[in-house]
Specification:
Largest sheet: 2 strands, parallel
Radius of gyration: 31 Å
Number of strands: 4
Strand order of the largest sheet: 1-2
Strand content: 5-15%
């Protein structure tokens, strides 16, 4: 450790003139660093997001209803599904975990009966469905204009539409 400090000291002595000429730059850099550090330290002490303080309390809209379907919910609807895996690790349903034509037909028909302005489905049901349903097997509710199906991008950035959509 002593040799390291001796080497640094030797470098400083040898380069004393060059460092003396650039002392203004070094001093300014240290001052800017200290000011920046002090500013970050002071601002972290307080809640500085003024937007939330200035606006009124925002009440949630009663026009929007979010429905999250967990794996346990789907299993309780139809526990005879052999392709659906009951797992306590799953927090919410993903598009690769479950597809049942009858359950989705029934679920979407019940939603459309409530006469919503729109229904957004965040699960992607494209060519990843197994078995892949044909157009004739699908109920008309899947092609309802009120239902907005999620899409994906492929590796080249092109949009992959679900099998139910008309391309929006």
């Amino acid at each position: 450790m002593r040799t390291f400090f001796r080497q640094i000291l030797a470098i400083l002595i040898v380069n004393y003139r060059r460092l003396w000429k650039t002392r203004g730059l070094i001093l300014r850099t240290l001052i800017i660093f200290l000011i920046g550090y002090l500013t970050l330290w002071i601002s972290s002490q307080y809640n500085f997001d003024l937007r939330f303080k200035l606006r009124n309390v925002n009440q949630p809209s009663t026009d929007i209803v979010l429905i999250e379907i967990s794996a346990e919910d789907l299993y309780s609807w139809d526990s005879q599904q052999s392709h659906f895996h009951k797992s306590g690790d799953l927090q919410s349903l993903s598009d690769n975990q479950f597809w049942d034509l009858e359950i989705w037909t029934h679920f979407l028909e019940k939603l459309i009966e409530q006469n919503p302005k729109a229904v957004g489905v965040t699960l992607f049901f494209g060519n990843n469905l197994s078995p892949l349903p044909t157009h004739d097997e699908l109920a008309p509710v899947f092609f309802n204009k009120k239902i907005i199906w999620s899409a994906r991008n492929d590796q080249e950035g092109r949009i992959l539409f679900p099998i139910f959509s008309s391309g929006y």
